[in-house]
Amino acid sequence: MTQRINRVLIKKHNLDIGTAYFYENFVVTEMKEGIILNFEKAAKLFQLGKEYYGNKIPFVYISNRINSYSFEPTSHFKSGDLFPNLIGFAVVTYASIDSEIAELEQAFLKKPTNIFYNLDDAIDWVEQLIIYD
């Protein structure tokens, strides 16, 4: 029998930058339309990540890009150091231009990354990463 990750929502947080959905081994974020995201603006999200996952619980970050926004890609350098237990980064896109941007962002990430066209496929990928980590 194959082990499966827990896909039950632990808690939803409405933040100034968007909405974060925390699960046992992954977080799904949906940023607000038009924001410019940087390390400082994401501070509350990082704080919540520490509360849920600490430095030990393996998790994957899923960016569900239902809205258009921009961010400073160099922020990945700082945020990656905060979470040694972050084992992957997924981007769910709904437009071809967003997929191209996500491909460029992958150059700044030192963890396994993948681009998906629906949230279910991204969560399936999380399951593969968590089970085989």
Provide an overview of this structure:
- The protein has 133 residues and is α/β, with parallel strands linked by helices.
- The chain has 4 helices and 8 strands.
- A 6-stranded mixed beta sheet has the order 1-2-3-5-7-8, with helices on both faces. Strands 4-6 form a two-stranded parallel sheet.
- Strand 7, helix 3 and strand 8 form a beta-alpha-beta unit.
- The model has no long low-confidence stretch (mean pLDDT 86).
C-alpha termini separation: 18 Å
In helices, the fraction of residues equals 25-40%
Number of helices: 4
Structural class call reads: alpha/beta
Major pleated sheet: 6 strands, mixed
The Rg value, from CA coordinates, equals: 14 Å
What spatial form do the alpha-carbon principal axes imply? globular
Strand neighbour order, sheet with most strands: 1-2-3-5-7-8
Which sequence of SSEs, written as H and E, runs from N to C? EEEEHEEHEHEH
Question: pLDDT average, as an integer?
Answer: 86
Overall strand count: 8
Q: How much β-strand is present in the residues?
A: 25-35%
Short description:
With 133 residues, the protein is an alpha/beta fold. 32% of the residues lie in helices and 27% in strands. The protein has four helices and eight strands; from the N terminus they run ββββαββαβαβα.
List keywords for this structure.
six-stranded mixed β-sheet, two-stranded parallel sheet, 8 strands, 32% helix, 133 residues, alpha/beta
